[in-house]
Structures are given as structure tokens and as C-alpha cells.
Amino acid sequence: MVIEVGYARAWDPEARSPWWPIPVEEARERDAAGLPYVVVYRTAGREAPLEVRLVSWRDHFAGLWVYDAQGRRTYDLDMRLLDDPARLLRRCTVGWSYTGPEMAEFDESCPRVTVELFPDGRGRRTEEPSGRHGSARSTVPRVPDSERWLDRPAFGEWPLLSAEVHGLTEPPAFAIAEVTEPAAFAIAEVTEPAAFAIAEAAGDDDGPAPATCWRPPRAARPGPVGELFRPGVRVTDGYHPEMTVVEPRRIGTLRVPSGLLAVSGPDIDDGDGPHLTVPVPPGEYALEEARARHTYHCEWEGKQVTRADATAVRVLVSDIPAATWEMARRPDDDPRLLPENGIFGFDTDGATGCFGDAGAWEPLLALFERGLIQADPDLEPDAYEDIDDSMYLLRTRDRASGGELVAFATTGDGTYPVWVGRSEAGEVVGVVVPVAGMPELLPES
Hints:
- The protein has helices at residues 24-33, 145-148, 182-189, 193-198, 361-373, and strands at 2-12, 17-22, 37-42, 51-56, 61-67, 73-81, 87-96, 112-117, 123-128, 137-139, 149-151, 173-176, 234-236, 243-256, 260-264, 276-279, 283-298, 303-316, 324-327, 346-348, 352-357, 384-386, 392-397, 404-409, 414-416, 419-422, 428-434, 440-441.
- By secondary structure, it is mainly beta.
- The strands form four sheets. Strands 1, 2, 3, 4, 5, 6, 7, 8, 9, 10, 11 and 12 form a twelve-stranded mixed beta sheet that branches. It has an eight-stranded antiparallel beta sheet with strand order 19-26-27-18-17-14-13-28, with no helix packed on it. A six-stranded antiparallel beta sheet has the order 16-15-21-24-23-22, with helices on one face.
- Strand 4 and strand 5 (61-67) form a beta hairpin.
- It is elongated, with a radius of gyration of 26 Å.
């Protein structure tokens, strides 16, 4: 069987077609430079591609999408290039098992299996026999190194990885597709100005691809972190169409005499201390709660009601405005492993986070447990304090060091990112935890 191989700068999954087809020589140059490009494998008599390979070495990524005869994606392989340039980690695979030709692509009820692998040998296999809305079963996959890693093929020497899926028993012959006038096609496709602002698939000076095109996975961006504490800014959380940021509430202070701020869930059991730490000058810092006001129709009261909800909490280290924001992470957190909009952060199973002095973390956490969980009546009055009418819940204080811990509520369990604001000089000016997701900015009125 003859397989036609075509190259392009990007792939549009909605149109199931390449964007800006390019000759093999240009694809080879992009591969060497680390720029994004795609490879499309087709066969005569079939409208849908057999598979699409997506490559961006500068983003440590190579991916594979396999399509069935109906043009539905049936398999997604996410591979990452880490420290060894000769091999790729099979970071994540997703397989969809459509129950019939009439089932739509990615139907919510479509059975699927997801396997996540990490370079240290960890992994997770999740089976969803009834799709997203059914029950899921997670197990630890037993995957040998020979299957966890794939030798990185040289340019032009990639095999058809989906050959077995398509029932090909003989080695296929490959033919390079011809390219005619790609530039005219590409320019005609970009019609909306918004696409230029958010799409980055093309990855060079000739302009970005349309917003519908695939782009390499990127970690979550900070969003309008600073604006959540700026009165008058208009935002939306997706549920309330318009919210207005009001003056942040100041809820006391936090003492960090060790100079190492801990940000963590209190329900950790690995014995390794807090989830995250941020170096700050030893001192006492203001605790603030960002809020946004919105109006809605209250069914209970039968009228329009205005209220202000908390959106984030922060430790204000300095009054200097933040010039940049970065996601806090542990030393072994590798951003090359993150999926699209992936985050690092602290985990909680009790919808609770903490700011605290990392130098006194263990005694502070013990006081937290004695006060909140055990309701110990023998606690000294100055070692434990409840906080009312705030996302901040309580404060504990270690007498020996003077360090403090303050717990705050989140809107659920899971992982919460921690954003560190830095000044132009690179100094930490604030540490923020969005407790209800990250709202989006609305245009200025």
C-alpha cells in the first residue's frame, strides 16, 4: 500500500485539514530549528487521514492523532522530549472506542481509556466504560521501560505508528505529497483579528495560524492575577456575566520569621513538609482577600440581589506592583511534562489551603489539627484563633519561633496553583492563590 506523506505548518482539527502545506525541505528545516510542523499520512480512496503527527521540539513535544474512516480521532499519543535527546517519553495516551459509525467524535458517552506515565516509573490508567458521565476506574499500569520510552526517529524516518490499528499487514511505501502555492491558501484562511492574538501554531515571523489550529501544549498562564485586587476592574467567572472588583479585605497579618513562606494544603500525609515554599524577607505581612461584586436574581428573595464573592487570597509582601507573575513549583516539578493549561500547585482533599511559616511548619500544622479537627480544649488561647466572616478560617501561632499559619477555604478539592508576583528587580512582592478559578477580564467600559 502507498501512503502519501504531506507536511504543513499546522493542523486544523475542526476542518481536519492541514494549514499552510510546505515542501519536505522546509519541514526538515523547521524540525532542525525546533519550530512546530505537522506530518499528515493519507491513502487513496479515504477522505480522512490515517494519522497526523504533530512536532515542536522547542516545546519538547511530539504527538500523534489517529483517525478512523469516519474522520473521528480514535487515539491520541502525547510524547515528551526530556533530558535524553535520543528518546521520547510516552507521557499520555487516550483511546476512544466509538460504539457505532453514527457516534460523534468525542461523544460524552464514548468509552475511553487514558494512560499517564512519568519518567520516574509512576503512572495511572483510567478506564471510563460509559464516557465522561459514567463511573471511572483508576489503576497503576505496569509498563516496562521498553514501552514507557520510544526511540526518537530521525526526520523522515518515522514509521506509520498506526499501521496495526488500520489493519496494514505489509510495510507501506511512502510517497511525498506535492505542494502548490501554500502561501495564498494560508493567508486566505486567517480572517478574524482575534485569531492573531491567541494562536501561536505557526511559530515564526510569517504570522500565526488560525485559532482553530493545533498548537503545542503550554502550561497555564497567570491571567489577570494582579487585577483581582484592583478596584473597578470588570471580570467574569463564566457563570456571572459581569463582576466588578471591589476593595480587597485585609484580614490581619502573617508572621514569617524564618524567611520561607509555605503554601500548602493542611491534609498532606507524605511527611515532606509543605507542598510549596517561597523565599521572602523575614517579617510580618498583610493577608488580603480579593472580592468581586455582582448582581443576580435571587429566587429565595424574589428580587435582584447584589453581593461580593471572594476570588483570591494573598500574602502582600510589598506595595510595589508586580511586573511579572510565575507559577510556584517544587524543585522536581518539570514543566515539560504539563498538558495544555496544566498547573503545579498544592493539593487539598478538604477544600482548604494554608499560608504559613515553613520554618515552624510541623508544630503549626499540629496546632491546626488539635484546634480544628480534634477541638482540643487544652489549647493555649494565643496558639489558636478562629477567624469569622472570611475565606480565612483560623490562625495558629508557634510560641517557640513566633511563626504563624493561617488557613483559608477554597471552593473545592483538587490542585490549586500558586502565583508569585515579582517586581522589576525580581523581588517577591506578593503570593496569590485564586480560590474560585481564574476570572477573565472584560473590556473597559
